[in-house]
Amino acid sequence: MTTALSIKDLRKVYNNGFEALKGISFDVEEGDFFALLGPNGAGKSTTLGIVSSLVNKSSGQVEVFGYNLDTDASKAKCELGVVPQEFNFNMFEKVEDILITQAGYYGIPAKEAKKRSEFYLRKLGLWDKRDGPSRSLSGGMKRRLMIARALMHEPRLLILDEPTAGVDIELRRSMWEFLREINARGTTIILTTHYLEEAESLCRHIGIIDRGTIITNTSMRELLQQLNTETFILDISPAQSQCPKLEGYQVTLQGDHTLLVDVEKSQGLTRVFAQLSEQGVEVTSMRNKSNRLEELFVSLVDKTLEDTAKGDSDNE
Amino acid sequence: MSNRELFIAFWTILVKEIRRFTRIWAQTLLPPAITMTLYFIIFGNLIGSRIGQMGGFNYMEFIVPGLIMMSVITNSYGNVVSSFYSTKFQRHIEELLVSPTPNWIILSGYVIGGSVRGLLVGLIVTVLSLFFTDLYIHNFWVIISVVFLTAILFSLGGFINAVFANSFDHISIIPTFVLTPLTYLGGVFYSITLLPEFWQNVSQINPILYMVNTFRYGILGVSDINIGVAYAMIIGVIVILFSYSMYLLNTGKGIRQ
After folding, report:
1. What is the pLDDT of residues A241-290, one digit of tens each?
2. What is the CATH number of domain A3-224?
């Protein structure tokens, strides 16, 4: 299988001395839907900035579909589409002109660019806005415009830096559908997001970066299998004044109608229901306390934090 | 990129630049037309009639080439400095940086775009000047070549200013405190032969003097300086500014973190 993106020993030290990337390496295979996650300031945007040629690296190598970004930049850039986190188009330009201009930067003739812009503007629900200035678009429309712009030269690798930030639920889900569709057509997608539900729903592989280091790089399935304990919220009836005792489970009563139950992977839920039933408690509804990926993400990042703190105290 | 693709990328930047300054024509094309008309009326007609001859021509005839050149200089410089700085400020420079468009095409697109505005304003001012005086053509090719080279030189200057600028204040400092004094002292309104010898020598280090005089030579056939030296100086400065602009683009100064 072809490697869509290969990053080797990538390091970035900013002018103020801050080391944003400490020699990270990872590959993304062709056709993948890859999530690059991490807390704020972890190095996600720096990584994507270097891949997009917006940030100068300090050392290391980046290859896009085998084309080295240092020695074969033109070919590498042709394979790459970028949807940045912040709006970065000319607010005074017409919507359609923004797309046609972007195509021109890739050497695409105006006639072909016009055809493609119509396709993507229709596909992303912006066709009616084509003649208006881009500043008149809503936040969600501006995000979709940036996606359309990134696709104008039909890249094989699409990078999206928090594409659904500030977008309402309905629009977010329609964007997910669109991204799934282009991924199914063969476009490799790399996504950063703070909505872990989004990453879990869309992505097949995941890399977690924290303080400039990749702490996990695996398939979503394998990662989720690492989750040992899940917390479930059970709405119960009748009201309870004391927390019911469930043998083998950690239980907390929240209010008088809600139980929080920690369930280990090996335990299952059947015995929870059985024990509650024996005590005359009926479960009226049930849900996860948080998204599974979110629980793992927090535990992995916390673990790195503890390891770093331990290392620091050992050094002292 | 193939040659055809490179041309499309260049043409795209050029068209975008032309579209920008024609969209805001009231800020870009109209003000120099009004300002220069006022210069023609006040300095040419009202004051000029009392000054008499300058360099063997009446004062209006003498200042028209300088005023045309002044418009070309300020508009070429102003177009690139404001356009490229806005591109940085609004961050849509990123559209170009992620694309395969090579840096020399980016630079050429902006510089030619700025030159087109400079030349267009120069043409407008030339047409307006015909309402006040007759224009001679002593050497057509000198007129065309020097005005074009001057527009390129100052577009490159505007580009370098924009790369270093971190605020809108920074894009007006050079035009106000460097360009305007150099233009006024560059022989637009007077022949340097009127100056004492010391100030004549000082004036020789003002590059604008060479451009204004070469242009005036093309129109009137008179010049305070050697035309060959002027061409060598203009082309030399263009080569230096182009090389430095390419260095700035290649290292990402002001545009890449």
Report:
1. 888 888 888 888 888 888 888 887 777 788 888 888 888 888 898 887 76
2. 3.40.50.300
| Residue B173: inside a domain | yes
Residues of B with CB under 8 A from a CB of A: 1-2, 4-6, 8-9, 11-13, 16, 19, 23, 87, 90-92, 94-102, 252, 256-257
Task: Indicate the number of domains in chain B.
Answer: 1
Please list every residue in chain A whose beta carbon sits closer than 8 Å to the beta carbon of residue B102. 74
Peptide bond into A238 cis (omega under 30): yes
State ipTM: 0.86
Q: Measure in Å the smallest separation between the Cα of B36 and chain A Cα atoms.
A: 29
Residue B256 lies in a domain: no
Which range is least confidently modeled, A142-146, A306-310, B54-58? Answer: A306-310
Whose CA is closest to B11, among A154, A99, A101, A74? A101
Q: Which residue ranges make up each domain of chain A?
A: 3-224, 226-292
Torsion, Cα of A201, A205, A211, A212 (10° steps):
-140
Would you say the C-alpha torsion A37, A42, A44, A47 has a positive or negative sign?
Answer: negative
Residue numbers of A between 18 and 37 with CB closer than 8 Å to B:
none
Q: What does the pLDDT look like over B202-233, one tens digit per residue?
A: 888 888 889 988 998 998 888 888 899 999 99
- Sole residue written with tokens 């607010």: A91
Domain with residues A226-292, CATH architecture? 2-Layer Sandwich (3.30)
Task: Please name the member of A55, A74, A149 whose beta carbon is closest to the beta carbon of B100.
Answer: A74
Q: How far is CA A245 from the centre of its chain?
A: 39
Does any CB of chain B come closer than 8 Å to the CB of residue A107? yes
Contact B98 A106 (CB under 8 A): no
Check B94 against A88: CB less than 8 A apart. Answer: yes
In chain B, residues with a C-beta closer than 8 Å to the C-beta of A82 are: 94, 98
| Residues paired with A302 in a beta bridge | none
Dihedrals phi, psi of A198, to nearest 5 degrees? -65, -45
Domain enclosing residue B96, as ranges: 3-251
**Within-domain flag for B221:** yes
